[in-house]
């Protein structure tokens, strides 16, 4: 695995790359990508960091696992490549945006446009074997992404963390809520959304209100 990560993140995470767990993780990922079809593409594994340098992070959205279908994952949580059908959770995200801030449903589910505005679209696990959800969990990625969250929490202020669903809320234990802002709701998956735990959370307008209060540019969702 080639750690082709933005220099600002390399500076923050150098100690992690030198730890034994990360070396073991690297060996595992290399073997998986050699022996199986895995997603995202090898040069997209660290896309979340490369689109959003450390000092530019304004918002963090936490996902769990990359999509495991053909051509879907592009290294940004909840995002799919252009010309790929939108998964149900992403459809529900766009439905809430349309209701909340009046932005029409987009033609693509590619969220690179969010990442380039300062949104770190971070999955807890950065790789997956094709058609095997969760296949790369508990191999070391979670430790690495915990370190990412901890670094942001310690060294930055006024980041808005959007934690959707139980898994993301547990992952948020690393956040210093005296320095940062945490918005929580149910997950946008149909199971949660249809029970009333997602729609109406207004996280997108609330995020922009907070950014405005910090003197930061609002997100064009």
UniProtKB/TrEMBL annotation:
A biological-process GO annotation: base-excision repair, AP site formation via deaminated base removal
Gene Ontology molecular function: any one: uracil DNA N-glycosylase activity
One Pfam entry name: UDG
GO cellular component: cytoplasm
Subcellular location: Cytoplasm
Class of enzymatic activity (EC top level): hydrolase
Reactions it catalyzes: Hydrolyzes single-stranded DNA or mismatched double-stranded DNA and polynucleotides, releasing free uracil
Keywords, sorted A to Z: Cytoplasm, DNA damage, DNA repair, Hydrolase
Signal peptide residue numbers: none
Residues covered by the Uracil-DNA glycosylase-like domain: 50-211
Top-rank taxon, per record: Bacteria
CDD domains, A to Z: UDG-F1-like
Purpose of the protein: Excises uracil residues from the DNA which can arise as a result of misincorporation of dUMP residues by DNA polymerase or due to deamination of cytosine.
Name recorded for this polypeptide: Uracil-DNA glycosylase
Annotated organism of origin: Dokdonia pacifica
Gene coding for it: ung
């Amino acid at each position: 695995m080639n750690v082709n990560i933005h220099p600002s993140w390399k500076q923050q995470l150098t100690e992690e790359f030198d730890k034994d767990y990360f070396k073991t993780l690297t060996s595992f990922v290399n073997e998986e990508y050699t022996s199986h079809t895995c997603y995202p593409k090898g040069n997209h594994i660290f896309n979340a960091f490369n689109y959003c340098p450390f000092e530019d992070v304004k918002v963090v959205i936490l996902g769990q696992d990359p999509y495991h279908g053909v051509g879907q994952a592009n290294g940004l949580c909840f995002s799919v490549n252009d010309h790929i059908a939108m998964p149900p959770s992403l459809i529900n995200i766009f439905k809430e945006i349309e209701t909340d801030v009046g932005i029409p449903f987009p033609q693509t589910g590619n969220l690179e446009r969010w990442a380039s505005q300062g949104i770190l679209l971070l999955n807890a696990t950065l790789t997956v074997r094709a058609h095997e959800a969760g296949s790369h969990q508990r191999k070391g990625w979670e430790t690495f992404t915990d370190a990412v969250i901890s670094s942001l929490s310690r060294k930055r202020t006024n980041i808005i963390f959007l934690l959707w669903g139980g898994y993301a809320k547990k992952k948020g234990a690393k956040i210093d809520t005296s320095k940062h802002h945490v918005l929580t709701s149910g997950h946008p998956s149909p199971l949660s959304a249809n029970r009333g735990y997602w729609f109406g959370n207004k996280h997108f307008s609330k995020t922009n209100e907070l950014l405005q209060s910090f003197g930061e540019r609002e997100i064009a969702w």
